Structures are given as structure tokens and as C-alpha cells.
Amino acid sequence: MYQKKMQEDIRCPLEYGLEVFGGKWKSRIICVLAEKELLRYSELRREMANITDAVLAAALKELIADEIINRKQFDEIPPRVEYCLTEKGISVVPILRSICQWAGMYRNEDSEFSLPQCRKCNYRSGN
Fold first, then answer.
1. Distance from first CA to last CA of the chain, Å, rounded?
2. Closest by Cα among 36, 54, 49, 45 to 120
């Protein structure tokens, strides 16, 4: 099982939350799996866009270690691996949707960098 190299210095629950689902990729992975429910690695990679295999693999390992994502491997040829959210992972989705709604109210809507993943939480301007 994946283990982090250094002991974390977390002093409050907010820091723990941001460590678990913060950052550029972890929240996107959670949102994609919340929408799609179950994906193989290649499908998840395709949904993410602009993420390298190394970064996706590292983020998945951390999310699995934090029990946000479940990884199921099938003994088949070719090998098949599927990813889905755990109960703990599903509990994070409303938090991420709230952050998305907040950001939608205060972020410049004219930005050319709007990503499809950001629309997965069903945020509607003015709601």
C-alpha cells in the first residue's frame, strides 16, 4: 500500500480536508468519479484532460490511501482496474459543490480557462 514519505504536520481539521481533497487534481478526480460513478484508468485519464500519467497515478494512490477512492482489480487478461468513490469520498462531493458555487460567484466568468470538469457539479450562475 502507498505510504507518504514524511509525517504530516496537520494542526486543524481544515488542513486535513485540504490535504485530502485539495489541490489541482484531487478535487477534479473526485468530481469526475461523482458524475461517472465507475471508471477504468483510461476512461478517467480521458475525462481529466491535461494530466500526465504520473500525476494521475500519484493522485489516485493518495486518494486510495485516504479512503476517498476504491480501486478494484480484476484477474483478467488484459488486466482491468476500476475506480469509484467510497462512502467517505461521496461525502466530500457536497463540499466541493459548495466551493464550486462560491467560486462561480466570485470568479471572472469571462475566463478562457473554464474546464469541462468544472461544470460537472451542476453549478448554475445565480443559483
1. 42
2. 36
Question: Grid coordinates representing 61?
Answer: 494512490
Q: CA Rg, the chain, in Å?
A: 15
Candidates 69, 86, 87, 66; CA nearest to 4 is: 66
Place of cell 483478467: 76
pTM of the model: 0.76
> Facing residues of 85 across strands?
69
Element (H, E) at 41: helix 41-48
Nearest residue to 27 via CA among 1, 54, 66: 66
For residue range 36-76, list pLDDT tens digits in order: 999 999 899 998 888 999 999 999 999 999 999 999 998 88
